[in-house]
Amino acid sequence: MTPSEPASRSAQKRRQILQAARRLFLEHGFARTSVDAIVEVAGVSKPTIYHHFPTKEAILQGVLEQQGSDAELPAGFIRKGPLLDDLTGLIETLLQLALSAETMAWDRMMAGEARRQPALGEAFWVQGPVRVIAELARWLAEAGERGELAIPNPELAADFLFGWTVGVPLLRGQLTGQVPDSAHLHLRAVEIARRFARAFAPSHHQDSTS
After folding, report:
1. Which residue among 1, 71, 108, 160 is the one 20 to 30 A from 135 at the CA level?
2. What is 71-200's CATH superfamily?
3. Is pLDDT above 70 for 206?
4. Residue 158 above 90 pLDDT?
5. What is the distance between the alpha carbons of residues 202 and 204, in angstroms, rounded to a whole number?
């Protein structure tokens, strides 16, 4: 047995625990998921779980961190063509991410847990919205470098675009469980992209500062 084999097995056990916990948290919620249930689904012993995670809250923290590290940049965040087309695609991708059944299930669960465990709410915020807004800021900064947009503060512009895009549809989804259909979301994306591009057009920025 090589020295790396025990470490590899330990990492595999940890991943099994996180995968099982993620599935159970989404299906039943954090409060209704027991460590015993995670043991059964993960196929590991309870001492193995506590070797990796001292508490159930630590398991949830691990799930959130794993999701952040495993997440790949969606195709809609990659530039392919003209600014307005790509910006529309970016906004549609953002809407699809925010309004997916899985994302809203996480939102509902974490909204409840954050009141009891603020550190978990902070972890969810960092691994979810903060990461997405950072990618938006990077996208907008690159558009600014190309001269397509005038973006003096990409982080603030990304924060604005994120809120404008997901605000009302996400609130409706969280309160009613209903989300707009794809045709409505496309129209929303087109309109937001058009207005955002106009607001941050280089010529508009020059006129407003001259």
Report:
1. 108
2. Tetracycline Repressor, domain 2 (1.10.357.10)
3. no
4. yes
5. 5
Q: How many residues are listed for the chain in this entry? A: 210
- Give the contacts of 142 (CB within 8 A, at least 6 positions apart): 79
Which pair of structure tokens corresponds to residue 37? Answer: 């249930």
| Angle at the Cα of 142 from the Cα atoms of 139 and 144, rounded to 5 degrees | 110
Residues of the chain with CATH 1.10.357.10: 71-200
**Average pLDDT over all residues of the chain:** 88
CA distance 209 to 127: 37
Nearest alpha-carbon partner for 59 in 74, 71, 73, 44: 44
Distance (Å, whole) CA 131 – CA 98: 13
What dotted CATH number matches 5-60? 1.10.10.60
CA atoms within 13 A on the CB side of 184: 8
As annotated, the residues of the chain forming the CATH 1.10.10.60 domain(s) are 5-60
